Amino acid sequence: MEKTIRLDKYLADSGHGTRSEVKKWIRAGRVFVDGQPARSADLKIIPGTSRVFLDEEEILPQEEFVYYLLNKPAGCITATEDRSARTVLDLLPPSRRNLFPVGRLDKDTVGLLLITDDGQLAHSLLSPRKHVAKTYYVEYTGILTEQDMFRLASGLDIGDDRPTAPAEVRTAGPGAVFLTITEGRFHQVKRMISAVGCEVIYLKRIRMGRLTLPDDLPEGSWRKIEKGDIV
Ligand code: URA
Q1: Positions in the chain short of pLDDT 50
Q2: Structure confidence at residue 54 (pLDDT)
Q3: What is the pTM of this model?
Q4: CATH code at 35?
Q5: For FRET with 184, which of 22, 121, 166, 223 sits at 20 to 30 Å CA-CA?
């Protein structure tokens, strides 16, 4: 049998108003279902089949979860709220959903950040057991020798209880490398680069699992994506 849902819940879930506001709109005759004015809030809607309008605007069914790919700019923090600093959520359209960033980028780090309300997907992307690859474009000061590259790739002591897991390092021009890691330790890239005597001066995440940062997505901009783009 097709899944049905009450009209007031359908409208409230769409983020247009609270349950009591949408009830008022229904009473005021502003809501139409399949071409007819809706008479009661408990009218049964079949999401994806019934056509619901508020005034002239069609109200589409609520997606179960949403996924935003953000090109995080420097200067905003990876948190859901903060007393003084701008957060990554401030860059997205206002939403009633419980959105949160998947993992963390430092305030001065830019690039790919996934924001969603899908806790299960976030959990599996962040699980240490999944070894999800994250690639960073890193600019640094100092000299990175062949031997340093080898140490970065093999795993090295960054002051934790165990060395870093093997990584992939590739030159990206003078003073720059692409570094791919499968862990997500605090300040991991900066600490790895510092462990070989250099210092990160610019850090940008360009890949996480199957997701890559699109070239045409400017810093501070976001794009809605599908779960299928991620896993
Ligand atoms: N590693 C860091 O040091 N900083 C980041 O923001 C991400 C990875």
Answers
A1: none
A2: 95
A3: 0.83
A4: 3.10.290.10
A5: 223
Q: Give SS3 for 132.
A: coil
Q: Which pLDDT does position 17 carry in this prediction?
A: 84
Give the atom of ligand 1 at the shortest distance from the alpha carbon of 104. 6
- pLDDT tens-digit map of 172-229: 999 999 999 999 999 999 999 999 999 999 999 999 999 999 999 999 999 999 999 9
What pLDDT shows up at residue 44? 96
Indicate if 36 and 138 belong to the same structural domain: no
Which residue's alpha carbon is nearest to atom 3 within ligand 1? 187
Which protein residue has the closest C-alpha to ligand 1 atom 1? 189
| 38 lies in the same domain as 100 | no
Report the nearest-CA residue for atom 4 of ligand 1.
187
Identified catalytic residue from 34, 106, 108, 148: 106
Q: Ligand 1 mean position to 101 CA, how many Å? A: 14
Q: Which residues line ligand 1 (CB under 6 A)?
A: 105-106, 109, 187-190, 203
